[in-house]
Amino acid sequence: FTPVRADVRNIAAAHLEGIDAVIDMAALSNDPAGELDPALTRAINYEARRRLAKMAKRAGVERYLLMSSCSVYGDTGESTVDETAEVGPLTTYAQCNRLAEEAILPLAGDGFVPLAFRNATVFGVSPRMRFDLAVNLMTLNAVRESRIIVMGGGRQWRPFVHVRDVARAALLALEAPAGEVSGEVFNIGHGNLQIRPLAYIVRENLPFMVEVAMAPDDPDRRNYRVDFSKAREHLGFTAEFSPADGVREVYEALKRGEVDEEPQTHTVRWYQALLDAERLVREVSLEGRLL
After folding, report:
1. Strand 157-162 to strand 191-194: parallel, antiparallel, or no bridges (unpaired)?
2. For residue 289, is pLDDT > 80?
3. DSSP state at residue 59
């Protein structure tokens, strides 16, 4: 494995020489981050992915796994939906995921096997730690403040999955018979929970008192419950780690100092800081030319 530091928008054909498979995770994530600069989100999350998939096919790459998101479903009401359901993306991030699916999956054929994962909301400890996702953020707030604030009304449904389960599913997808996965979409997750009950699961899995408080803000319109049986039947994938497992894991990692809250662990704040820095550089450069 040789890491190459590059902008996904500028990947060259040489990067794909001798490559058997691409797992495309290069994207601005998640829904709030996608709204910071919708044009940039579209350029990276849709246009760059479409370009990369086409280049991969031309380069003879055999398999292409697009990491999409269950957010493409938007608001499913009280229904639990599978991959055949009509999607209704509500955000730029979700819309770009859907556009990327529509551009990449039809490339199937001539030895090229593209597929897409609609991942649930991810949790758990990872090298690029994130504390802006529900399970991880609630656990962090409980440890830091002994308090969890439930936003968006708390009745919205979300599917959840551990980061290691996603990685394991990806390996299964690369090894599965082409006829089982080519051109297909798979929901990847452990199960579905409402945000308010999730807060109590976090509290119940920590060894100290935690207050759960409701924030009087507008309800979150994103609301979806999804079915994961297709991945089980076609990939042999069943998620191993529950949100409760993730809470205990993140707590232990925080306690041991293996992870910590840093600017990069909050995606929206970090991306906004990068955008602000880029804007400042442009302004200083312009002032220098004017002088």
Report:
1. antiparallel
2. no
3. T
